[in-house]
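Forum: Protein Structure Q&A
Topic: Joint prediction for protein chains with partners

I've read a bunch of threads here and the consensus seems to be that you should model interacting components together rather than docking separate models afterwards. I'd like to see that in practice. Below is the full input, 831 residues plus whatever partners are listed. Could one of the regulars post the assembled result?
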Amino acid sequence: MITIASDFGSPYPAAMKGVLCQRTDARLVDVADDFPRQDVRAAAFWLREVLPYFPPSTHLVVVDPGVGTDRNALVVRAGDHALVGPDNGVLQPVARRLAPETSLESFVVDESRLEPVEPTGVASSPQATLGRDDSSGPASNTFHGRDVFAPVAAAIHEAGRKSLESLAYLSPADETVDLELPDAAVEDGRAGGEVLVVDDFGNAITNVPGAFLEGCERIAANGELVPVGDTFAAVEPGERLVIVGSHGYVELDVNQGRGDDAFGLTPGDQIVLEDRE
Amino acid sequence: MITIASDFGSPYPAAMKGVLCQRTDARLVDVADDFPRQDVRAAAFWLREVLPYFPPSTHLVVVDPGVGTDRNALVVRAGDHALVGPDNGVLQPVARRLAPETSLESFVVDESRLEPVEPTGVASSPQATLGRDDSSGPASNTFHGRDVFAPVAAAIHEAGRKSLESLAYLSPADETVDLELPDAAVEDGRAGGEVLVVDDFGNAITNVPGAFLEGCERIAANGELVPVGDTFAAVEPGERLVIVGSHGYVELDVNQGRGDDAFGLTPGDQIVLEDRE
Amino acid sequence: MITIASDFGSPYPAAMKGVLCQRTDARLVDVADDFPRQDVRAAAFWLREVLPYFPPSTHLVVVDPGVGTDRNALVVRAGDHALVGPDNGVLQPVARRLAPETSLESFVVDESRLEPVEPTGVASSPQATLGRDDSSGPASNTFHGRDVFAPVAAAIHEAGRKSLESLAYLSPADETVDLELPDAAVEDGRAGGEVLVVDDFGNAITNVPGAFLEGCERIAANGELVPVGDTFAAVEPGERLVIVGSHGYVELDVNQGRGDDAFGLTPGDQIVLEDRE
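Posted by a regular:
Agreed with the consensus. Here's the joint model:
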């Protein structure tokens, strides 16, 4: 199985699917095509929270503001999973969730050794000659999802995730770009954290572990007292509450409304929770 | 086959797909991930109009404003189809379309008997311990799509829709929440109805059966005379018309434009159609 | 394999998928459901750029402002691919990319000979009787994606793309609507072209072949001097640049921003590029 995640919108993911289908019969599953644009940290969060629910898979990830620069294309083997994407840190948080950090193995893609991606029957197409007359290899400079990451994901699926060493264009990575999603500072009765992402419902998801709310009926969130709910329905529709979300973190939400608007929060904002009872 | 419909946006449906893929090789087909947020009635309409085009399937439906409350998780067997979703009425209109009402069989899910959904390799994840230390069972309080409905849909697919009785956590439902989409009041030359939904094109879809328009060249819609068209192209681009839509109901549309804006209509608005000729 | 592309938004594509699944076990791949609404030219561009990356497939395309008029339903055999959609030109540019123009074969669908599309179990549904009592055949007048194109695509997949002649409702097309995406006028140091589309990133994609930029460090774009980049990262985030995009054409972009806004460009706008160095 190959999962596909990007910030591409439409229809660029279809070109990646075409390339995948050219090279493998693997089952394809869409994870997202609308991660916040070029937001490596948000993508890293969502991948960490979603991919562990999949059976062993090859995960194709393209959130890649540095496309075309000298940033590497990376493969990370994490337990029975393989992650393919840019070396900008987006793969690290999920990799560490999928397998112990000491067991992770990272590989760099030598793009010059990749077989070029060829559209069919396009003698007249300008992209048919892209990169053919320079030394930059077979890839366009702006769409490595199609030209690099999809071919590598297909090859990994076909070779088997245990046999990454058999792919001649992969070599062990000396060093990779890391990305750590910040941890909240939790002490007795006080948690200093951060809004990591806002989901499509408007729930402001923090990095404060849900256990902090245990036994609380109300909590001060950035100084304002807000009810703690077991469920959204603990408060009336339109009312604010603090809740343990499905990722296990504290969220600032509104029952049937948008928590980000009601609390005035966006990703990256600091949040202090205090148990004043 | 398992179809997937929700109001989740992105990327929550991917977590459901991961759970499904963990437990079954069933073909997965996306119906929608963007039903109007927490709008049980709109979802009920769309499911009623779309799901009957599928071959016998298990249909996973999550539009669930009451998630985490004591509302039941429900399975409805409707002919060769099975519907899985919250007991808030969203499943009823499509169930009655798929099979005679007297033949429908409903089952309640005993959530405490469900095998927990476990992400892989996540010793460090706060969600790994969600609900482990209380009596509420293995589910989060905010994401039953992932923790309850997806596992049940996978199990039904594996057991076979004829063998729901073999699933120990299902028991016949005594009573279920019903939802009736309203019928229009049609008499000679006058129909009093309602806008049920507005589609993505801006077509305002009513509950007035299309037969009402038979033989009409113009119709008064809330008092304004509007042409009746066989096709959108019966009027110039940008012009309003009344038409029989693909669901068989009267729609108030604009050729290559938005009917909802042009007629000033939103779901729930009353609409009176009069044949004044 | 059947690919699916439309401007439908949600959830209409699901009805097409249901019909496809009723009639074939073909693998279904979503190309797009959000092509610019009723914009035949934009869809023609995207299909031309994306579908050639797929292996031989049947491609279902519905961008159809003339639905229900006497425009034909069309099948085009282009090499090992088959394209199914309205005869409004949307299929022509990709067909010419997939195979030499002289080898293309076009067929008209005789809709009156199509087996009707029946939802299951819907005695009470008004759409069950759509078109049953008139001479217009089995299709609704507004949703030929479900009632005409999907059934034809499924039948082509089942019959084999080499055996279109075996489908009794297909007959060779005498004439078809053509659509030519305009070519840029390129002479030494000057290119007069057009913005064909703006992608979801805001990149304004022109029809000027990328080779025009060879050796340029800066270019005058509609009179303003802009840097030419090999990659987005050639300029600072938020800065404008001109680049060869992944389709091989000149694009007017902003690194990590929207080129259409920064350059004030929308599809159809003229663009003059001049090498003043």
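Chain C has a mean pLDDT of 92.
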